[in-house]
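Internal ticket #5521
Category: modeling
Description: The requester needs a full-assembly model to guide mutagenesis choices. All entity lines are attached below as received. Residue total reported by intake: 336.
Assigned to: D.W.
Attached entities:
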Amino acid sequence: MNNERKEIEYVTEISGFGYGLPWVIWGLIGLFPPVWGFVVSPLLAALNISNETIDAAVLWALALFIALAIYLTVFSLKFYRRTYGRVRIEKKERLLTELKYCFYMIPVILTFTAGLWTDKNIHPPVSISFLCLAGFSFVLWFAKGRGISNHQLWLGIVILLLSLFPLLGFAGQEDVYGFSTLDYATLLSGIFGLILAVEGVFDHLILARTLKSLPKEEEYEFV
Amino acid sequence: MSLFKEITELDKLLHEPSRLAIMTALAGCKSADFLFLQRLTGMSKGNLSSHLSKLEEAGLVEIQKSFIGKIPNTSVSLTEIGINAINEHWQKLEELRNGAKTWNPENESIETT
């Protein structure tokens, strides 16, 4: 299959399923826990705000963030429709693809939980949770971007290298490599969010690069 | 049939680059807006309309015109014939590509007129 054909099919798929900016938005949701846990929460604590208030604030902030994400997702999909036109996917194919992603998510979640348990209880010299995330990025590359875009591959390699941090002596002794279990899970959620966000950015760039701009005098009307 | 003769006998209606791009995109979805195809091919409205008309005349695509709110919308989809034609065309191209890889000039007979 030649590259032009792959690119056309990929762009049609991205447009039909609404990948791109919506993935960036939902990836940022994944970044919310580490940003709150490592930046906002300590900042609020330094301002002598009580723990009860901070705990209540996190729920409100998360709810607000999710509401904003839903609004921005709808907005970005409308933006795509207006700018690039609508691509409709067969209902059956859409359902099958969504089921396929749900099906993929089961082993991802199971492996991820097993990895977290292993990191916490066995302390292997290589972080198994990070390896799972690297694997997730490789699977995304293999299933989706292979031949069109290799960003998932490079991101996977970076996470794979990061998984070596205990071996290189960057890990503490307590709990999970020096992190509390909650902090470690928070960190992993941030990396997961980052993978989704990067995926969305690159998909958007592929759309913007492949779908050419219209001449200024052109207006949309009947054929 | 010789490899080169097969190449020259490819379906020109489908093999024209813009039409091939349109048909390939439509093969990956149920239907696509005129605007999407225009963005994909970078063609002017007139040019794209002309290509779509040719494809429609050949029974390869179906064009639906409607309104979304007050905005006119034109969407294009492949017919059954169109789906088969584009799949066969890509298969043919793949075969020719594989044939070209193993092509040996010594095995090719020269036809003289």
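Resolution: model delivered.
Comment from assignee: The beta strands of chain B are 31-33, 61-68, 71-78.
Ticket closed.
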